[in-house]
Design a protein that fits this description.
275 residues, alpha/beta, Rossmann fold, seven-stranded mixed beta sheet, two-stranded antiparallel ribbon, 9 strands
Length: 275
Protein backbone atom coordinates (compact mmCIF):
# COMPACT_ATOMS: atom_id res chain seq x y z
CA UNK A 1 0.00 0.00 0.00
CA UNK A 2 1.43 3.40 -1.00
CA UNK A 3 1.13 6.29 1.46
CA UNK A 4 1.82 9.74 0.04
CA UNK A 5 5.05 11.27 1.33
CA UNK A 6 4.95 15.00 1.91
CA UNK A 7 8.20 15.74 3.72
CA UNK A 8 10.63 16.01 0.81
CA UNK A 9 10.03 17.06 -2.78
CA UNK A 10 12.64 16.24 -5.39
CA UNK A 11 12.63 18.74 -8.23
CA UNK A 12 12.25 17.30 -11.75
CA UNK A 13 15.44 17.38 -13.82
CA UNK A 14 13.62 18.35 -17.04
CA UNK A 15 11.70 21.41 -18.14
CA UNK A 16 8.52 20.30 -19.88
CA UNK A 17 5.66 22.06 -21.63
CA UNK A 18 2.66 21.80 -19.32
CA UNK A 19 4.81 20.48 -16.46
CA UNK A 20 3.08 20.33 -13.07
CA UNK A 21 5.83 21.45 -10.72
CA UNK A 22 3.54 24.31 -9.62
CA UNK A 23 0.83 21.83 -8.63
CA UNK A 24 3.09 20.14 -6.08
CA UNK A 25 3.08 23.31 -3.99
CA UNK A 26 -0.63 23.18 -3.16
CA UNK A 27 -1.94 21.70 0.07
CA UNK A 28 -5.36 20.93 -1.35
CA UNK A 29 -6.52 17.31 -1.48
CA UNK A 30 -5.81 16.61 -5.14
CA UNK A 31 -4.55 13.05 -4.81
CA UNK A 32 -5.61 10.07 -2.67
CA UNK A 33 -3.39 9.40 0.32
CA UNK A 34 -3.50 5.62 0.05
CA UNK A 35 -3.42 3.46 -3.06
CA UNK A 36 -1.76 0.31 -4.35
CA UNK A 37 0.25 1.12 -7.49
CA UNK A 38 0.86 4.64 -8.79
CA UNK A 39 0.52 4.90 -12.57
CA UNK A 40 1.22 7.83 -14.86
CA UNK A 41 0.64 7.48 -18.64
CA UNK A 42 1.88 10.99 -19.62
CA UNK A 43 5.10 11.19 -17.62
CA UNK A 44 6.78 14.31 -19.04
CA UNK A 45 8.98 15.86 -16.33
CA UNK A 46 7.45 13.61 -13.67
CA UNK A 47 6.75 16.45 -11.22
CA UNK A 48 3.82 14.70 -9.54
CA UNK A 49 5.61 11.35 -9.48
CA UNK A 50 8.68 12.82 -7.76
CA UNK A 51 6.51 14.78 -5.34
CA UNK A 52 4.40 11.80 -4.28
CA UNK A 53 7.38 9.43 -4.14
CA UNK A 54 5.38 6.21 -4.52
CA UNK A 55 7.04 2.97 -3.48
CA UNK A 56 5.39 1.04 -6.33
CA UNK A 57 4.84 2.71 -9.69
CA UNK A 58 4.38 2.30 -13.41
CA UNK A 59 5.40 5.41 -15.34
CA UNK A 60 4.96 5.70 -19.10
CA UNK A 61 4.97 7.98 -22.11
CA UNK A 62 4.88 7.59 -25.90
CA UNK A 63 8.06 9.67 -26.23
CA UNK A 64 10.77 7.00 -26.55
CA UNK A 65 13.66 9.44 -26.08
CA UNK A 66 12.09 10.65 -22.84
CA UNK A 67 11.50 7.14 -21.55
CA UNK A 68 15.01 6.03 -22.50
CA UNK A 69 16.37 8.97 -20.49
CA UNK A 70 14.54 7.80 -17.36
CA UNK A 71 15.71 4.24 -17.96
CA UNK A 72 19.32 5.37 -18.31
CA UNK A 73 19.23 7.28 -15.02
CA UNK A 74 17.52 4.33 -13.35
CA UNK A 75 20.20 1.88 -14.51
CA UNK A 76 23.38 3.96 -14.16
CA UNK A 77 23.01 7.63 -13.25
CA UNK A 78 26.79 8.17 -13.03
CA UNK A 79 27.30 7.48 -16.73
CA UNK A 80 24.56 9.96 -17.61
CA UNK A 81 25.95 12.63 -15.29
CA UNK A 82 29.55 12.29 -16.48
CA UNK A 83 28.42 12.54 -20.10
CA UNK A 84 26.31 15.60 -19.25
CA UNK A 85 29.34 17.27 -17.64
CA UNK A 86 31.22 16.87 -20.93
CA UNK A 87 28.38 18.66 -22.72
CA UNK A 88 28.54 21.44 -20.13
CA UNK A 89 32.25 22.04 -20.75
CA UNK A 90 31.82 22.20 -24.53
CA UNK A 91 28.55 24.14 -24.69
CA UNK A 92 28.32 26.83 -27.38
CA UNK A 93 26.00 27.68 -30.22
CA UNK A 94 28.00 25.59 -32.67
CA UNK A 95 28.26 22.70 -30.24
CA UNK A 96 24.51 22.76 -29.57
CA UNK A 97 23.67 22.22 -33.23
CA UNK A 98 26.38 19.59 -33.53
CA UNK A 99 24.85 17.62 -30.66
CA UNK A 100 21.32 18.18 -31.96
CA UNK A 101 22.21 16.47 -35.25
CA UNK A 102 24.21 13.66 -33.64
CA UNK A 103 23.05 10.08 -33.11
CA UNK A 104 24.68 8.63 -29.96
CA UNK A 105 24.87 4.86 -29.81
CA UNK A 106 24.57 4.10 -26.09
CA UNK A 107 21.53 4.54 -23.86
CA UNK A 108 23.39 6.79 -21.43
CA UNK A 109 24.90 9.07 -24.10
CA UNK A 110 21.46 9.44 -25.68
CA UNK A 111 20.07 10.37 -22.25
CA UNK A 112 22.72 13.02 -21.65
CA UNK A 113 22.03 14.44 -25.13
CA UNK A 114 18.32 14.63 -24.31
CA UNK A 115 18.94 16.45 -21.01
CA UNK A 116 21.52 18.78 -22.57
CA UNK A 117 19.18 19.82 -25.37
CA UNK A 118 16.27 20.20 -22.94
CA UNK A 119 18.24 22.61 -20.79
CA UNK A 120 19.74 24.69 -23.58
CA UNK A 121 17.05 24.73 -26.27
CA UNK A 122 14.41 27.45 -26.63
CA UNK A 123 12.11 27.39 -23.58
CA UNK A 124 12.68 23.70 -22.90
CA UNK A 125 10.37 22.68 -25.74
CA UNK A 126 10.30 19.21 -27.23
CA UNK A 127 9.41 19.30 -30.92
CA UNK A 128 10.36 17.11 -33.86
CA UNK A 129 10.09 17.48 -37.63
CA UNK A 130 8.31 15.12 -40.02
CA UNK A 131 11.34 12.82 -39.92
CA UNK A 132 11.08 12.57 -36.14
CA UNK A 133 14.22 14.67 -35.60
CA UNK A 134 14.41 17.18 -32.74
CA UNK A 135 14.40 20.64 -34.33
CA UNK A 136 14.07 23.23 -31.54
CA UNK A 137 16.64 26.08 -31.88
CA UNK A 138 19.11 27.02 -29.18
CA UNK A 139 17.69 29.14 -26.37
CA UNK A 140 19.03 31.76 -24.00
CA UNK A 141 19.86 29.43 -21.09
CA UNK A 142 23.39 28.06 -20.91
CA UNK A 143 23.31 26.24 -17.55
CA UNK A 144 23.77 22.55 -18.30
CA UNK A 145 24.58 21.42 -14.75
CA UNK A 146 22.13 22.80 -12.18
CA UNK A 147 22.51 23.39 -8.44
CA UNK A 148 19.37 21.30 -7.89
CA UNK A 149 20.75 18.28 -9.77
CA UNK A 150 20.76 15.08 -7.75
CA UNK A 151 20.78 12.24 -10.25
CA UNK A 152 21.68 9.74 -7.55
CA UNK A 153 18.47 10.57 -5.68
CA UNK A 154 16.45 10.50 -8.91
CA UNK A 155 17.87 7.06 -9.67
CA UNK A 156 16.91 5.94 -6.17
CA UNK A 157 13.34 7.15 -6.67
CA UNK A 158 13.18 5.29 -9.99
CA UNK A 159 14.67 2.09 -8.57
CA UNK A 160 11.40 0.21 -8.18
CA UNK A 161 9.52 1.87 -11.03
CA UNK A 162 8.44 0.06 -14.16
CA UNK A 163 9.25 2.49 -16.98
CA UNK A 164 7.46 1.86 -20.28
CA UNK A 165 7.10 3.50 -23.67
CA UNK A 166 3.48 2.89 -24.65
CA UNK A 167 0.13 4.50 -25.43
CA UNK A 168 -1.86 5.90 -22.52
CA UNK A 169 -4.74 3.49 -23.13
CA UNK A 170 -2.51 0.51 -22.41
CA UNK A 171 -1.18 2.04 -19.19
CA UNK A 172 -4.71 2.69 -17.95
CA UNK A 173 -5.94 -0.72 -19.11
CA UNK A 174 -3.25 -2.42 -17.03
CA UNK A 175 -4.38 -0.66 -13.84
CA UNK A 176 -6.14 -2.66 -11.13
CA UNK A 177 -8.60 -2.00 -8.33
CA UNK A 178 -7.05 0.27 -5.70
CA UNK A 179 -4.46 1.76 -8.07
CA UNK A 180 -4.11 5.51 -8.54
CA UNK A 181 -3.56 7.03 -11.99
CA UNK A 182 -2.49 10.64 -12.49
CA UNK A 183 -3.25 11.88 -16.01
CA UNK A 184 -1.84 15.04 -17.56
CA UNK A 185 -2.42 14.88 -21.33
CA UNK A 186 -1.59 17.53 -23.92
CA UNK A 187 -4.30 20.18 -23.65
CA UNK A 188 -6.11 19.72 -26.95
CA UNK A 189 -9.66 21.12 -26.99
CA UNK A 190 -12.51 20.80 -29.44
CA UNK A 191 -12.34 24.41 -30.60
CA UNK A 192 -8.99 26.08 -31.08
CA UNK A 193 -8.53 28.92 -28.59
CA UNK A 194 -5.65 27.36 -26.72
CA UNK A 195 -2.24 29.03 -26.98
CA UNK A 196 -0.46 25.74 -27.41
CA UNK A 197 -2.96 23.98 -29.67
CA UNK A 198 -0.79 24.17 -32.81
CA UNK A 199 1.85 22.09 -31.08
CA UNK A 200 -0.53 19.74 -29.30
CA UNK A 201 -2.75 18.95 -32.28
CA UNK A 202 0.14 17.17 -33.94
CA UNK A 203 0.51 14.70 -31.11
CA UNK A 204 -2.85 14.53 -29.35
CA UNK A 205 -6.15 15.07 -31.16
CA UNK A 206 -9.68 15.63 -29.92
CA UNK A 207 -10.38 11.99 -30.78
CA UNK A 208 -7.59 11.09 -28.36
CA UNK A 209 -9.31 13.18 -25.67
CA UNK A 210 -12.47 11.12 -26.17
CA UNK A 211 -10.45 7.90 -26.15
CA UNK A 212 -8.82 9.03 -22.89
CA UNK A 213 -12.18 9.79 -21.25
CA UNK A 214 -13.47 6.36 -22.25
CA UNK A 215 -10.38 4.69 -20.78
CA UNK A 216 -10.86 6.57 -17.50
CA UNK A 217 -14.51 5.51 -17.38
CA UNK A 218 -13.51 1.87 -17.81
CA UNK A 219 -10.94 2.25 -15.04
CA UNK A 220 -13.40 3.83 -12.61
CA UNK A 221 -15.81 0.97 -13.20
CA UNK A 222 -13.20 -1.52 -11.98
CA UNK A 223 -12.19 0.51 -8.90
CA UNK A 224 -9.26 2.58 -10.14
CA UNK A 225 -8.77 6.12 -8.75
CA UNK A 226 -7.90 9.04 -11.03
CA UNK A 227 -6.85 12.66 -10.92
CA UNK A 228 -6.90 14.25 -14.37
CA UNK A 229 -5.42 17.63 -15.30
CA UNK A 230 -6.91 19.24 -18.38
CA UNK A 231 -7.78 22.52 -20.06
CA UNK A 232 -10.50 24.72 -18.62
CA UNK A 233 -12.68 24.63 -21.70
CA UNK A 234 -16.36 23.96 -22.28
CA UNK A 235 -15.58 20.94 -24.45
CA UNK A 236 -13.53 19.32 -21.63
CA UNK A 237 -16.21 20.17 -19.06
CA UNK A 238 -18.82 18.51 -21.25
CA UNK A 239 -16.58 15.47 -21.74
CA UNK A 240 -16.11 14.86 -17.99
CA UNK A 241 -19.30 16.36 -16.52
CA UNK A 242 -20.68 13.07 -15.17
CA UNK A 243 -17.41 11.33 -14.37
CA UNK A 244 -16.15 12.95 -11.17
CA UNK A 245 -15.53 16.02 -9.05
CA UNK A 246 -14.25 18.97 -11.10
CA UNK A 247 -11.98 21.63 -9.57
CA UNK A 248 -10.59 24.86 -11.07
CA UNK A 249 -6.95 25.71 -10.39
CA UNK A 250 -4.85 28.73 -11.36
CA UNK A 251 -1.25 28.68 -12.45
CA UNK A 252 1.28 31.02 -13.97
CA UNK A 253 1.68 29.90 -17.56
CA UNK A 254 5.29 30.26 -18.62
CA UNK A 255 5.32 28.19 -21.83
CA UNK A 256 3.20 29.31 -24.74
CA UNK A 257 3.42 29.50 -28.49
CA UNK A 258 2.99 33.29 -28.47
CA UNK A 259 3.82 35.83 -25.77
CA UNK A 260 0.27 37.27 -25.79
CA UNK A 261 -1.00 34.00 -24.30
CA UNK A 262 1.29 34.18 -21.28
CA UNK A 263 -0.04 35.06 -17.85
CA UNK A 264 -2.59 33.65 -15.45
CA UNK A 265 -4.57 30.72 -16.78
CA UNK A 266 -7.09 28.37 -15.24
CA UNK A 267 -7.00 24.61 -15.52
CA UNK A 268 -9.31 21.78 -14.56
CA UNK A 269 -8.62 18.95 -12.15
CA UNK A 270 -11.03 16.03 -12.28
CA UNK A 271 -11.04 13.59 -9.37
CA UNK A 272 -12.75 10.34 -10.34
CA UNK A 273 -13.21 7.03 -8.53
CA UNK A 274 -12.33 8.31 -5.06
CA UNK A 275 -13.52 10.75 -2.32
Amino acid sequence: MNIQAGSRINLPFLKWAGGKRWLTRTDYKLFPREYRTYREPFLGSGAIFFSMQPSISVIADVNKELIDTYKAIQSDWKKVYLSLRKHAKLHSKEYYYHVRSSNPRTLHSRASKFIYLNRTCWNGLYRVNLKGQFNVPIGTKDSVILDTDNFELISEKLKYSKIICQDFKETIRQSEKGDFVYIDPPYTVKHNNNGFIKYNENIFSWDDQIRLRDSVLEGVEKGVMFTISNANHESILELYKDLGDILYVNRNSIISGKSKFRGKTSELLIRAGWL
